[in-house]
């Protein structure tokens, strides 16, 4: 796929290799962007690359296909919904993530 920028370049990783959830969160301003519409986020960033692991890159739009909420009231709600969608759709490969899900921590 032709990306609008290199997923590992300055725009995609802010100078360091960042993965999944971190890249999604860095595209918004916690103080100014909420409430945040999922449709507006996808409209603005849908074709942006998100590195999932060392060999997989998907678009923001692909990740948001699993997002159920239409709007996020705040940064915490955004993080929770994106984390849920990413785990349920195979985009979450962090070691030990199961410890923090479902109250089993």
Automatic annotation (TrEMBL):
InterPro entries: DUF5785. It comes from the Archaea. It holds the Pfam family DUF5785. This is DUF5785 family protein. It comes from Halorubrum glutamatedens.
């Amino acid at each position: 796929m032709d990306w609008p920028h290199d997923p590992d370049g300055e725009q995609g990783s802010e100078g360091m290799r960042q993965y999944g959830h971190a890249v999604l969160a860095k595209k918004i301003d916690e103080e100014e962007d909420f409430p945040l519409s999922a449709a507006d986020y996808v409209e603005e960033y849908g074709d942006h690359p998100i590195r999932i692991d060392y060999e997989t890159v998907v678009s923001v739009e692909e990740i948001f296909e699993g997002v159920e909420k239409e709007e996020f009231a705040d940064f915490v709600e955004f993080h929770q919904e994106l984390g849920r969608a990413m785990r349920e759709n195979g985009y979450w490969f962090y070691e030990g993530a199961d410890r923090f899900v479902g109250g089993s921590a």
